[in-house]
Design goal:
30 helices, 7-stranded mixed sheet, 40% helix, 4 domains
Length: 905
């Protein structure tokens, strides 16, 4: 017991205290001590506190600790690597580690019952442990802290894994799916030499694994799988799992462009696909593979958001739809987005009922060996953060991989938790097919070049095992060669009939946008009765609800706005937009950091009881068809924005909104903005109505809380891909939000939303502007005299109110201020009308409070210099930083800016 000498050296009273704590609550003590006390209790229960001899009790406990250690650490030496020896991870599973030796091997121990063996010799206990835990599957699960899940997992591993033997028809199907996978890669390698395809060669067992997942899942009630994956194996999955025909894939290799599709397109290994497949038991399952750019794990939150949207609107049950994320080993270890997504697992605003993660672990990331790609032992160690079990499995053992996938699906369905399958395999070629892998891994690729593919290994295994006769194997091999020849002859396949889902039919009713759509917005006003209904909901609370004093004052102010003054501030107009859309039957979902209250304490969509902390969501009490889904998010931008984008992709009748705490927080989500939001429609022909609210404006708060980097968004505008606004009135914000759902198409909306304007006394709109009219792309000057104007100022957003104050204070009717509320797309006819109206002006200037090398100026110049030859600009000095860090300097610079705007010669 030398390895446990710390027990003897510990203070006796302290151990007694810990044991008492353990008996009251096993989770109250350190896990190591909990496991010790568990073993102590076991031995005491089996043999009594005064066993036949102290030696027997000690030995039983030592063997129990050995069993426990195998459960927790044997995965470190399981046979999971098909092409090279595993590193020595010092699992400490030798007899001497537990005070045992070879003399004990013939001794029988009662503790054998832990493995279902009854009283058994130590050598038989060890043999069973090796068979269970040192085979081609490494089970990593002992860190799970929920007893029911831990016991379920333990039971499945120590009973079903031992007895698992696929039926003859299952064996044939596994071999058939391996054939398909190998045929596909073999064909492409022969036909399209050197072309990038990111082949699955070495990891072909993914295809029977997905097949097993679909069949098992359908039997457990799953109706749809939503899949996200990077490049490796995507084309193989598209054909042999999703049912995309070889002919379609070939056309893409030939560079064909479907005539009926418009857009820039994307490379074939980024594309998505949807299909309906039939399982072995005759069930129909929807499969959706989301498109994904080269940013690998970027698709993860999109898949989760799409899945949650389908749960909320269509399935109403997270057991019928399952997100599946297929990772590469280097990406799953190093891409931080996966951590953000795993932290969403059980959050009420983001939970999807558990995700099945499958890792194609080819042990190399681009050209980097795994030893240089991570510090953790496993690429999947992020799973421990959420107590997700991991199956590490040898990709050359298809039956073991299939078993893992079936068990993973069962675990997910039973416990609604994430689960990881880490299939250790290899990559036969380099990062792509034109890359030479021996430059960086010469010894590894010498082994791989001689290593048979998984189909050949499995075929040989079946013959040796007697599961398949030599004649059957020969016929299978003949069928395999015939299948290959068919593909080489480019034999056509019949497309799998696809039945559109309800949400997809809704997307089909939409059309593409044209420039004419942005010249004048549709009517989006609501009836007075709707305003009153929502006003009542926003100002009424239950009798037993006790708000804070500040909230009580807020409710009184809101009531005055809706029913007495009949003018609404920003929060009132925004909530009216949401409530009216709910009343129209649309879904509205808003998430982000502090959105329920609002970063600037303006929204207060969800109230909290001062005594009970109970929530009251006002807009859930307007009698609408749907509830207002508003969630304070985890402290994430990349993941949460991706989630909301995926949510918006599921169906067109939802207004999905992400609000950044400050606009510059969008920096952390730039990948999602560039790869999905700004380019998704042109690359993948998928529309989205996502709204981004990005608080923006120079207000002396320093460089990190001033700019949403408007210039970045405007530089990415082209082809009517997005709408970019910087609004100045509550009514225009109301109409902009309603317009998102009124249009016969969907476009992302990027709004530079306000901060100080949320409480500015002039930033109010009369109720009549909500009950009539539409969104205003430009707002004209109602103060200046057009015929006498010497200067026309064009501006956008918050700086307008600084200019307005000066204009009215100095009574400058010779300077007109026109607000450009929508920066992209530009309403050209309205702009022409404004320029014509103020033709007397000697000059036209663009005024912005951002530095000259930021903000909208570059975009305005690029798009208006031909139309306005005398166009000039006024802005702050060019700067690497978006704003100054000192309030006094900010005020000085802002005053100079305004003064310059009215310095008309």
């Amino acid at each position: 017991m030398d390895n446990y000498s710390y027990i003897a050296n510990a203070h006796g009273n302290y151990i007694d205290e810990m044991y008492s704590d353990y008996q009251a609550d096993p989770n109250s003590v350190d896990e190591t001590w909990a496991r010790f006390f568990e073993g102590f209790d076991f031995a005491t229960t089996k043999f009594g506190s005064n066993g036949s001899s102290a030696g027997l009790d000690d030995k039983e406990l030592q063997v129990y600790q050995l069993i426990h250690a195998y459960r927790g650490r044997a995965h470190l030496r399981s046979n999971t690597n098909p092409v090279r020896q595993r590193k020595n991870r010092a699992p400490r599973l030798d007899l001497s580690d537990f005070g045992l030796n070879d003399k004990d091997l013939e001794t029988s121990f009662e503790v054998g019952s832990e493995l279902g063996l009854g009283k058994a010799k130590l050598k038989d206990i060890i043999a069973a442990l090796k068979k269970i835990y040192e085979g081609t599957i490494g089970f990593e699960y002992m860190y799970i802290r929920h007893a029911d899940r831990l016991e379920w997992f333990k039971h499945k591993i120590e009973t079903e894994s031992l007895s698992y033997k696929p039926k003859p028809n299952e064996v044939k199907r596994i071999l058939s799916k391996l054939n398909e996978a190998v045929v596909f890669e073999n064909f492409l390698h022969t036909k399209y030499i050197g072309q990038k395809r990111f082949s699955l060669e070495g990891g072909e067992t993914l295809i029977p694994a997905l097949d097993a997942m679909i069949n098992k899942g359908a039997d457990l009630g799953i109706e749809e799988f939503v899949i996200g994956m990077a490049h490796r194996g995507r084309l193989n999955v598209l054909t042999n799992t999703m049912g995309k025909t070889y002919e379609q894939i070939f056309n893409e290799f030939e560079g064909a462009h479907p005539e009926e599709e418009m857009g820039d397109g994307d490379v074939k290994y980024h594309m998505g696909f949807s299909s309906t497949v039939s399982t072995e038991s005759g069930k129909k399952v929807y499969l959706k593979l989301n498109p994904n750019p080269s940013h690998l794990e970027a698709v993860n939150p999109v898949v989760e958001g799409y899945t949650r949207s389908m749960i909320d609107r269509i399935y109403k049950d997270d057991s019928k739809i399952v997100p599946v994320l297929i990772h590469g080993d280097a990406a799953v270890a190093a891409q931080g987005i996966l951590y953000e997504v795993t932290q969403m697992q059980k959050l009420k605003g983001y939970a999807t009922g558990g995700t099945i993660h499958f890792v194609i672990n080819n042990q190399v990331g681009f050209t980097t060996d795994f030893e240089d790609a991570r510090s953790s032992i496993y690429c999947t160690d992020v799973a421990k953060v959420i107590d997700a079990p991991v199956f590490h499995v040898n990709g050359d053992d298809p039956e073991a991989v299939v078993f893992c996938m079936q068990m993973a699906v069962e675990y997910r369905q039973k416990f609604k938790r994430d689960v990881f399958v880490d299939m250790v395999c290899y990559r036969r070629h380099g990062h792509n097919e034109s890359d030479e892998p021996k430059f960086t891994q010469p010894s590894l690729y010498n082994i791989i070049s001689k290593h048979p593919n998984p189909r050949e290994i499995y075929n040989k295994k079946l013959i040796e095992r007697g599961d398949v006769s030599a004649d059957v194997a020969k016929n299978m091999d003949k069928e395999f060669r015939a299948l290959l020849q068919d593909r080489l002859n480019m034999a056509k396949q019949d497309s799998i009939p696809y039945q559109f889902q309800k949400t997809q039919k809704e997307w089909l009713t939409l059309r593409k946008a044209t420039q004419e759509d942005f010249e004048k917005s549709p009517k989006t006003g609501v009836k007075q009765a709707v305003v009153d209904k929502i006003g009542n909901a926003l100002t009424t609370i239950p009798e037993n609800f006790k708000p804070l004093k500040q909230i009580d004052k807020l409710l009184k102010t809101r009531k005055e706005q809706f029913f007495d003054k009949k003018e609404l501030d920003w929060a009132g107009g925004e909530l009216l937009a949401y409530g009216s859309l709910l009343d129209d039957g649309y879904y509205v979902r808003l998430s982000g950091q502090d959105v329920q209250r609002g970063t600037f304490s303006h929204r207060h969509a969800v109230l909290k009881d001062a005594e009970t902390n109970e929530e009251y969501n006002s807009l859930n009490h307007i009698g609408a068809n749907h509830k207002f889904a508003i969630y304070n998010s985890l402290l994430s931008e990349y993941g949460v924005l991706g989630f909301e984008f995926g949510y918006s992709w599921a169906h067109p009748k939802i207004l999905a909104i992400w609000e950044a705490q400050f606009g510059d927080f969008a920096n952390g989500a730039q990948t999602m903005i560039d790869q999905f939001i700004m380019t998704g429609e042109t690359k993948w022909l998928r529309q989205s109505g996502l709204v981004m609210l990005l608080p923006h404006g120079q207000e002396g708060q320093g460089p990190e809380h001033s700019s949403a980097r408007l210039e970045r968004f405007l530089k990415a505008c082209a082809g009517l891909n997005v709408v970019v606004t910087n609004l100045t009135t509550p009514a225009n914000n109301f109409h902009a939000l309603r317009r998102q759902m009124t249009w016969e198409f969907r476009k992302p909306l990027v709004n530079m939303s306000p901060k100080s304007l949320l409480r500015h006394p002039k930033v109010v709109s009369p109720v009549k502007e909500f009950t009539s009219g539409s969104f205003q792309e430009f707002i004209d000057d109602s103060y200046a005299t057009a015929a006498k104007c010497k200067r026309l100022i064009l501006c956008t957003g918050k700086v307008y109110y600084d200019l307005l104050e000066e204009q009215q204070k100095s009574k400058r009717k010779d300077v007109a201020i026109v607000r450009m509320e929508q920066l992209y797309p530009i309403a050209q006819t309205q702009l022409d009308a404004i320029l014509k109206k103020y033709k007397s002006a000697k000059d036209v200037v663009w005024v912005q409070e951002e530095p000259g090398n930021a903000g909208a100026w570059g975009y305005i110049l690029r798009n208006m210099y031909k139309k306005i030859p005398n166009l000039d600009f006024i802005a702050k000095t060019d700067s690497a930083s978006p704003a100054v860090g000192y309030l006094n300097i900010h005020k000085q610079k802002q005053a100079e800016l305004v003064a310059k705007a009215f310095d008309v010669k």
